[in-house]
Write a structure and sequence with these properties.
peroxiredoxin activity, 62% helix, 0% strand, globular, AhpD-like, 7 helices, CMD-like, mainly alpha
Amino acid sequence: MDARLNYFASPIAGTVLKSAMAAGKAIKGSPLPAATQELVALRVSQINGCAFCIDMHTKDAAAAGESAVRLNLVAAWREATVFTEAERAALELAEQGTRIADAAGGVPDEVWARAALHYDQEQLTALTVLVSFMNLVNRLNVIAQQPAGSYEPGKFPVQAH
């Protein structure tokens, strides 16, 4: 399978992706825990069906020491006992922020309040930006049918996409 578009050969994509990668780098450097960032990136990518990002974030998280059990259970986090309450709140916010069209009213106040119990304002900002960022790059990859499977951990200097 070949991608429909070669983002690396396109001047417009190069300009946009340079800015996007700068945003990804800022998120990576935020006070939001790295493990939470990878779990959220993985869950958003699962919801959006972005195989490229699922491949990337699964491999990068494993290379950073994340357990196979936790990675395998991200899709069923509600029933899994391997996530902290803070991680569960982040995953719930990520799902609601990704499924905005399904939730008609956006992210419910209760979901935001649960996240706010575990994260300060800067972390909540990073979490919100991460969810939005992942939705952007997921859509780019899904529309272009970016193939998955050959990603090697650390391939990109900023692995937030």
